[in-house]
Amino acid sequence: MSSFMKKKLALICVVSLFTFSIAAAGFALAADADDSVEPDMPMAIPIFADGILVGEGIGIDGSTYVSLRSFCEILLDDIEVTWDQDIETACITSGDLRITTTVGQQYFTVNERYFYVPDGVFNVDGAVMLPVRELAKVFSINVKWHDDWSVSFGTGKVRLMETGGDYYAEDDVYWLSRIINSESGNQPLEGKIGTGNVVMNRVADPTCPDTIYDVIFDKQHGVQFSPVEIGTIYAEPNEESVIAAKLCLEGYSTVGESLFFVNPEIGITEWMSQTRTFITSIGDHDFYA
Description:
Layout: H1 3-18, H2 22-33, E1 43-49, E2 52-60, E3 63-67, H3 68-75, E4 80-84, E5 89-94, E6 97-102, E7 107-110, E8 113-116, E9 122-124, E10 127-131, H4 132-138, E11 143-145, E12 151-153, H5 164-167, H6 170-184, H7 189-204, H8 212-216, H9 226-230, H10 239-249, E13 260-262, H11 270-275, E14 278-282, E15 285-288
Parallel strand pairs: 1-12
Antiparallel strand pairs: 1-2, 2-3, 3-10, 4-5, 5-6, 6-7, 7-8, 9-10, 11-12, 13-15, 14-15
Helix pairs in contact: 1-3, 6-7, 6-10, 7-10
């Protein structure tokens, strides 16, 4: 039996275990990760690799989740899997690759890079589940969704992405994490990302400075961020603020094209509401474009 066929059979066996129990376990885990999430009824999604049916994923709120271990076994020849039951953390290694994920968290890491999972990481009958779209990024492969509610990908052009040490500019992480922490250190991860998004959106805006540092310390029309004026911008950021900064640098966004945010309990919102477009509210902040 070929190596690929052995992997195919292994994946089929794994997915058959969790497909039938995802309704109960999936809803519970999603609620733990974010109480505001009300996922649609999970459905089985056929998964094809190189045109061969290799098993089923599950569809929740528009995302297709697959077994982390089984997905990696399809793409890699040799993997080592460890599981820490106490903290519900799985780690997969293969050569220079290291993937780490914890059940309930809204992100996972690959070689010190961060990937956002808004609905959280699931553990279903012992299978750690992640969105196939995010896993595909790890291996630089394309995933296709079809009209018959199936998903397919090819295994012929697998290529690992840059490591975090090579990808993230140290200065960008340093300042972005500090403005996130000083403005939103007590906010949920989604809100921290939103604060970072505002900075990144300004960097991309032709009317604003074009670096993270210059946006944060911009004084062309007065101090833009109060932590710059009161000095809290220099405080050491908490761990989640650093993670949020890296997720922003990966391109994840929770607030669209927002250029402003304000805490309506303590900030002046009249100018915002009259001149800007309201986007969303996350935690204590309202975001405007």
